[in-house]
Amino acid sequence: MAEQSPSKKLRNQVKGFLCEVSPIKDIKKPYFDAILQHEGEVSKVVAFRPEDHIHFQNAETTRSQVTLDDVVLQPYVESSRKRNVFYTHSSKMSCVHERGETSKNSLSATPQCVQLSELQNLDTKSKKVNINAKIIQEVRKGNSVVWDGRYLPRTEYTVADTTGYISLTVWCEHNITVGEWYNITNVSVGNFKGKISLSTTKNTQILNIASQGTAVAVQVPTETIKCDIIGVNIKNIFICPRSHTLKDVTPSSPTVYCVSCNTHYKPPAIIMRISGHLGLKPEMGNVVEASIEDEVIRSVLTVKPGASREDIIQSFIALPPMQITIRENIVVKMEDVPQKAEIRSEAELPVKVEPVEESIDFYSPPDHGILFSSQDRKRKSTD
């Protein structure tokens, strides 16, 4: 039996909060998409009513709960726990802030900045906030796969204001300087294992501002130790030119196919990223487990384009003991162990005898020991 079109499937109603509303796409058959957070789920909304685009954007800006009526639901392709929501031409959207005059005014209002101490007691479900904060420290830098399969740069910072501090994950590249204050808008509030954190979205704007006062003093613990690498577990991730993750990549194949792009690429256009975990044995103490990402790996290993996972593991195992800096169980720096200067006794120091030219008058400085030069210094006669 042929698959029914979305317009003929069972109609449903969903409620939740919209985020990541895209621009209108495809001029001939316009549509846009968004993310709906509802009932403990995260669904992708595909909307075919471009005239409602402004209402979706307003609901996202004001963080208003919306009700989508007469939508079509179907299981998400990549996970049975996710669903696609089709907002068709017969669907309707209602927003709690659209009821009454006070809510109409709130649609154009700019959300106020919240203090970081307030976030600890905030209901994090489907929340976005604006903050003014000082960048205290860069905790880690790397890449991660996001919900749509793209592999994007990610930097985690510790930020603080005058009331508290929090972890902020910044996606994609931004011109951020540690020690500066920033106004950061439309950041998502999350709660993982009881720990509140912030994360930027595609609508986040980061603007450098003047100091807002004395920020709370905070420092992420960092430890630098000499370790022997006794265990390695890494994985290779292959990325297409449009940052989509690829599966079943064969280096010898003439082309590499990306499902998301529906495009075949030449193998040299594919980027390989490496990440994993290391087992580290300090000179004293127990074995330490720490994660490591591509940027740090390539600082100590020369990875050839066709290198296999086994090749990289063997290169790690072959490394001598290294001086490794760890922050929150993440390797942030690896370097050779500094060589200690060897101090030898005076009896072991080589004695260098240089010939002295014959002269009527000469000056020989007093011997101050091995830390000073004992070479003769000549003085010409003034006669």
- The residue-averaged pLDDT reads 78
Low-confidence stretches: 98-110, 359-366, 368-383
SSE pattern? EEEHEEEHEEEEEEEEEEEHHEE
Helix content: under 10%
Number of helices: 4
- Helix/strand-derived category reads mainly beta
Number of strands: 19
Distance from first to last alpha carbon:
119 Å
User: What form results from the Cα inertia axes?
Assistant: globular
Which range does the strand content fall in? Answer: 35-45%
Count of individual domains? 3
Largest sheet: 6 strands, antiparallel
Would you summarize the structure shown here?
The chain is mainly beta and 383 residues long. The chain is 8% helix and 42% strand.
Descriptive overview:
By secondary structure, the chain is mainly beta. The chain folds into 3 domains: 6-107, Beta Barrel (OB fold (Dihydrolipoamide Acetyltransferase, E2P)), CATH 2.40.50; 116-209, Beta Barrel (OB fold (Dihydrolipoamide Acetyltransferase, E2P)), CATH 2.40.50.140; 222-336, no CATH class. The chain has 4 helices and 19 strands. Strands 12, 13, 16, 17, 18 and 19 form a 6-stranded antiparallel sheet that branches. Strands 1-2-3-5-4 form a 5-stranded mixed beta barrel. A hairpin with a 2-residue loop joins strand 10 and strand 11 (195-209). The longest helix is centred in the first third of the chain and has 9 residues, at 53-61.
